[in-house]
Design goal:
The chain is built from 11 helices and 13 strands. It has a 6-stranded mixed β-sheet. Strands 10-11-9-12 form a 4-stranded antiparallel β-sheet. A 3-stranded antiparallel β-sheet has the order 2-7-8, with helices on both faces. The structure holds alpha-D-galactopyranose (GLA).
């Protein structure tokens, strides 16, 4: 049995003296397709074998009483009898935001006690926040029989980010958190929300995450700026045709023909998104054809676009990618997620993975003085109940 689950179960019993339910809620990776989700494009994420665990039970007190074992000042108590508002910062906002967003359509959310712990590196761009809100909303949905589907849970989670974290994110993280499957990647169309599971056997290759340990405060606000720049492009080009609602409605030719109508920056952002969507589709075909070399090349081009056109990379991430792609056994490497720090993801032949980790660690330390954290992760199932030995 998972030690983390066992531990939160025991701690919950010690603190609250009732029997909790246990939820496991995973982090995610994204193989290719970044900053496309909020542009109604394509993404290729997977849930991973790093997760947040929540032990939770209702209390009769109209209060949240929460203990996050891995966080400083880990206890958080809040009266939720009245209107719920964001607090200064930090993990409690994901709990409060979940209560707020569940109450919005009229669900009754009484008080609850919970103990939380996990092994998703925080701030590394692996969506620990989507895991926290996804796990909590899933648990409350089951406990109180709200009848929400997984898709509805994902959408509630996304709204939590919008309203209580101030990030106008897309749906990718929450979707991966809820729909993940072991040995599968999720090819998601963020317009229709239709998805296809693409087999991915990570016993043949390794997914290496290299946490640059760079966490930029500006990441959230810059993220919103990128989103607005894409919307600006759409707004201008929709003058040509009112049917144009998102970048998904704009063809490459149309963008090129009307390049002069856009500022250089807005053009670059739009160009990137259109290219990245094509790359995701082609990369999925590569994977289905078993052509990891072609797949890896698209990862590298994705990084170049994120660096030069979308401008969400940073020198540390660029360095990690430049180093990785020179090493034997590396199919591809790119920054992953929102950017401005966090992780790179590299697709590496199984037999080269240890050596690649070692070389990357040493090179990065020599270059930046920072000790990167390198994680080998596997695809895993999405959020669900888990058990502990009683
Ligand atoms: C963050 C957001 C996602 C997505 C990625 C970039 O992880 O939460 O919705 O936009 O950045 O692809």
């Amino acid at each position: 049995m998972n030690e983390l689950a066992e531990n939160i179960y025991q701690q919950f019993k010690d603190h609250f003296s009732v029997e909790p339910v246990l939820v496991r809620s995973p982090g995610r990776v994204n193989l290719i397709g970044d900053h496309t989700d909020y542009n109604e494009g394509f993404v290729l994420p997977a849930a991973i074998n790093r997760a947040i665990y929540i032990a939770i039970a209702p209390n009769q007190q109209k209060k949240i009483r929460a203990i996050a074992l891995d966080m400083p000042g880990s206890r958080f108590d809040a009266d939720i009898s009245g209107e719920v508002k964001p607090v200064d910062a930090g993990w409690p906002n994901f709990l409060l935001g979940s209560v707020f967003q569940l109450r919005k359509p009229g669900f009754d959310v009484p008080g609850f006690d919970c103990v939380i712990s996990g092994d998703i590196p925080i701030g590394a761009g692996l969506s620990s926040s989507a895991a926290l809100e996804g796990g909590l909303i899933y648990a409350l949905n089951e406990i109180h029989n709200y009848g929400l589907s997984r898709l509805e849970i994902a959408k509630v989670g996304q709204q939590v980010e919008h309203t209580f974290a101030g990030v106008q994110c897309g749906i990718m993280d929450q979707f991966a958190n809820l729909y993940g499957r072991e040995n599968q990647l999720i090819k998601l169309d963020c317009r229709s929300l239709e998805y296809e599971l693409i087999p991915f056997f990570d016993d043949e290759v390794r997914l290496l995450l290299c946490d640059s340990k760079v966490h930029r405060e500006l990441a959230g606000s810059e993220y919103n700026v990128r989103r607005r720049q894409c919307e600006e492009g759409v707004e201008i080009l929709s003058d040509l045709n009112p049917k144009i609602k998102t970048l998904r409605d704009i063809s490459s030719d149309l963008l090129e023909e009307n390049r002069g109508k856009l500022s250089a920056v807005v053009y670059d952002r739009c160009r990137f998104v259109l290219d990245e969507n094509q790359r995701v589709l082609q990369a999925c075909s590569d994977l289905q054809n078993g052509d990891l070399t072609a797949f890896g090349k698209k990862m590298i081009r994705s990084h170049t676009g994120l660096r030069d056109l979308y401008e969400v990379s940073c020198s540390e991430l660029d360095f990690l990618v430049e180093q990785a792609v020179q090493l034997p056994g590396v199919f591809g490497s790119r920054m992953m997620g929102g950017g401005f720090g966090g992780c790179t993801i590299s697709l590496v032949k199984k037999e080269n993975a240890d050596e690649v980790s070692r070389v990357l660690f040493d090179a990065y330390k020599k270059e930046t003085g920072i000790e990167a954290e390198i994680h080998e992760v596997k695809t895993a199932d999405g959020t669900g109940f888990t058990q502990t030995i009683k």
